[in-house]
Every structure is written in structure tokens, then in C-alpha cells.
Amino acid sequence: MRSIATSLITVALLSLTVALKAQEVSPFAAAKEAISRYEYSKAIELLDKALESAQDDNEIRDLSLQKARCQKKMLRYDAAAETLASVMKPGSLDVEVAGELADCHVSSGKLNDALGLYSLLSLQHPDNLYFSIQKASLLFKINDFQGCAEEGKVICSRDPIPSILSLIGASLLKMGQVDSSLAYYRKSLRFNPSNPNTVVSISNILLGKKDYDGTISLAKDFLEQAPDNMGVAQILGVAYYLKDDQDNAYEVFKQLRKDGDDSYGTMYYSGLNALALNRFEVAQDCFEEAWQIDSSDVRLAVNFAISLAKDRQFRKKNDVLINNTDKAISFFSKASDIAEPDHEIMYKIHNGLGQLYFMKQDIKTALPHYEAAYEYNPKDIALLVSIGYCHRLNKNYNTALRYYEKYLKLGKEGTKNYNFAKEEVTYVKSELHMLQ
Question: Over the stretch 170-207, which tens digit does the pLDDT of each residue have?
């Protein structure tokens, strides 16, 4: 019995000892344990408790820093900023506190406040590249591209960091200094040749300059080292397409689709490329995929409609006989609904609709579309023949004659349209003579 009693007393004493030790753990130590378990909300409560009894300024500072970091982990950036501001002293700049506060301002979108702090820190510590880098990044974000470029150049005079060289390139490009921008992007690529984003940036500049061969060379060189990079492969396909090397473009886009790239850009340009090669079914399938991604792009709607309109053959698909004429009209109409006042787009829409309604022998509907297309693009003088022919079919012979004669003054002798217009003039004049 005595042995059992002794054991019970021992257990009780051990339990009491553990309890007393638990009570002896300071709130700060408990907060550190909570942080190690990612229990940031609990850590904030414990740090607040520790701050209640803290007397020393250094202790208050350290506890506040820990609390602010926990608040940042919980995405409470404004609360963290208040915590940090409470321990900042007038007339002096605590580097650690100011840096944390600037980071809070960045995360909460207060970019000018962050820039002010990083500028002060950069002045106080001119050898600290981190502060200069943060300052340059913020200058770009607030659209001070001149300031960003200047700050970036200072940084790179000490350490040519590839990302900062690219940032300078982006700033110069925003200011319209295309050649200087290109030079900095190329320098960035020399220091970090494996960065696909830099390759894309350079390629976009080269495409804008219509340097398709330069773009192709750059993309192919990069893809030799990183053949699975779909973004650069897409650039290569676009460059081939714009160069009008449609066969090579087709192979690039076909491989991209095979590799699972179903992005809007790949599907749209795959469609354009297939359309240029008269591979209408491929074009339609690609445009259909692109349309599922973005049905607000008027150029997509127009080109989809063109691919449908040009594919005039009745054919079977999945054992169903289909005719694309009505679907083409539908997409031209959709394009018209979403089009902004763009003469090129509106010309394509009305010209396409005119042709489709003419094919359906709906001359009454085709005519105003042909007339609208000519208003948007009077350089397409072939439309004069189409308009004249519609008027002739409607027996508006005087009007038809006027359009045919206008075409004959502008058209080239010996062409199919020219010969047709001459024959029509003879026919219309004979009809007019009969009516007299």
C-alpha cells in the first residue's frame, strides 16, 4: 500500500512540476513556438501580451518587429504598418524597421509611400544595392520610366544584374527609345541567355521592326537549348507567318498543338496560317478553339467568318453534311456587332457579307454590303464591278452602267474583271436601247 501511495505522490509532483514550468514559459518564447508551427494569429496574441509588460525600448522594438512580420504573414499589411510606425523614432531611421515598413507599403499598394522610404534608405546607405533595386522597381511601377532607367544604369555600373538591364530596356521602350531598349535587352540576354522572357521581349521589338529573320534566328537559337519552351516556339511560328513562310509556320504551330499548347495566341495564329494555306478545316478548328477562349476579338470573328466563307464546298464531318454559308454570315454579323470604327475590319465584314449573300442569290441584301465595303476601302475597285452587277440584276441599268464605266477608268486592261465589265457595258447599253 505504501508503495502505491508513494507512486501516486510522485506522479502528482511530476504533474505539478510540468505545470509550473509551463507557467514559467514567457509569452515571447511561446510566440516563437507558435511561429515555428505557423500559428501566426496565436503568435500575435502572445506578442501583444509580451508587449504589455515590456519596458525597454529595444525589447519593444524587437517584439514589434516580430508582431509585424506575423501580421504580414496573415496579409494584414496595414496593421503591420501601424505596428512598425509605432516604434519609428523621429530624426533617425531604423534600417530594419523602415525596410519592413516599405515592404508593407508595397504589398498594400501604397507605392509612393514605399518609394519615399526606399529613397531615404538608399540615400542613407548608398552602397546597399537592395535599396536601389527596390527604388528602381517602384519607379517603373509608378510610370517614372526616366527615373527608373537612370537608377537602373547606376546599379548596373556597379553590378550588371540581368533583370535590371531588362528593366532599363523596358523603361526605354516605354519612352519610345526602341534601339536603346533593344541594346539593353540584348545585354541582359548575354548575361543570362537562358531567360525566355528576355527572348520574348527582344522578339517583340524585332517583330515591330519587321525584322522577321532576326526574330527567327533568335528564337531558333534559344530553342536549341530549350526545345520545350512553348512561348518562344509561338514567337517563331508568328515570325514565320508574318514573313509569309507559311509552310514552316504550319509545322511550328502543328507541333505546338500536338504538344498541348491550346493558348489563344497559338490557336489564333494557327488559324491565320492555315487560312493562308487554304487549309480551311484546320483554320476553322483553330478559330473555334480561340473563340471559346475570347469571343470579344473582332479580328478573330472576321477571320473565322472568312475561313467559313472561303470553304464553299459541301462536305461531311462526323457523317453530317454541312454547309458553312449561314455560319459564316453569323460570324460576320457578330464581328459587326463588336467592331470598333476600324475601316479595315469593317471593309472585310461588309465585303464578306456581300459575297455570301450574293452566293445565296440574295442580291437585295448583298448590294448594301458591297456598297459599304467600297466606302470603307475605295482602293478595292473590284467592288465597283460587284456593285454594278447587283444593280444590273435588279435592272437598274443606268446605275449599273455608271459603276462599270467608273471601274473601266481605273481597272487594268486584259484582266478578268476588266473584260467582264466591258461585256456588261455592252449588255447594259443594249438593254437601255431596248427600253427607249
Answer: 999 999 999 999 999 999 999 999 999 999 999 999 99
Grid look-up 545585354 returns: 187
**Confidence (pLDDT) at 55:** 87
Amino acid at 226: A
pTM for the whole structure: 0.78
CA–centroid distance for 411 within its chain: 43
Residue 22 is predicted with a pLDDT of: 45
Residues in Cβ contact with 333 at an 8 Å cutoff, skipping those fewer than 6 apart: 353
Q: Comparing C-alpha atoms, which of 73, 77, 146, 88 is closest to residue 120?
A: 88
- Check if the beta carbon of residue 310 is closer than 8 Å to that of residue 304: no
Cα atoms in the 13 Å half-sphere on the side-chain side of 344? 3
Of the candidates 194, 198, 195, the one whose C-alpha atom is nearest the C-alpha of residue 181 is: 198
Torsion angle of C-alpha atoms 292, 295, 300, 305, degrees rounded to 10: 90
Helix, strand, coil percent values for the chain (each to nearest 5): 80, 0, 20
Exposed / middle / buried, residue 341 (Cβ in 10 Å: 0-12, 13-18, 19+) = exposed
Q: Which three cell numbers stand for residue 310?
A: 472561303
Hey, what amino acid is at 179? D
